[in-house]
């Protein structure tokens, strides 16, 4: 049985959603298969702000993202609400394709903890300094956990 997709081309995903070096792709319901179109697009080389909030990437989509060399300039990555588990975060933590990544958002994903530890201990995400796990909980790698309720 074929998977139904809303987007058949990368142009249809990007349409009206590229703003300079920012790809604002939140709330599209992108599946891992649809996101694969992004990971093949040379236009991703220009992106340093990648907002994928509220999609359906899951661990498979994050695994494909983690090995995409076209994402070398991404500094901000929003993966809130994507069905990502610790397994996906462990894949992300070993990525050599995100050398510039500084900030990572992971709210509202079914994360238990081992993936967060993997990110914190990552030997490849050297620039990653801040990640947000749940509303109000932010980790600064050099400073530890902070809680600042977002009202």
Automatic annotation (TrEMBL):
The keyword DNA-binding does not apply. The keyword Iron does not apply. Pfam families: LRR_6. It comes from the Bacteria. SUPFAM superfamilies: RNI-like. InterPro entries: Leu-rich_rpt, LRR_dom_sf, RanGap. Keywords: GTPase activation, Leucine-rich repeat, Repeat. This is Uncharacterized protein. It comes from Nitrospina watsonii.
């Amino acid at each position: 049985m074929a998977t139904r997709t809303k987007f058949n081309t990368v142009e249809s995903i990007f349409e009206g959603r590229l703003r300079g070096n920012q790809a604002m792709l939140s709330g599209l319901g992108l599946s891992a298969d649809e996101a694969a179109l992004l990971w093949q697009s040379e236009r991703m080389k220009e992106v340093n702000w990648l907002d994928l909030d509220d999609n359906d990437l899951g661990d498979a989509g994050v695994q494909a993202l983690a090995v995409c060399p076209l994402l070398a300039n991404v500094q901000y990555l929003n993966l809130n609400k994507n069905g990502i588990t610790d397994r996906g975060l462990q894949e992300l933590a070993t990525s050599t394709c995100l050398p510039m990544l500084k900030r990572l958002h992971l709210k509202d994903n079914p994360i238990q903890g081992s993936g967060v530890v993997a990110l914190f201990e990552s030997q490849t995400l050297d620039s990653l300094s801040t990640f947000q796990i749940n509303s109000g909980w932010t980790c600064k790698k050099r400073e530890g956990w902070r809680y600042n309720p977002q009202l």
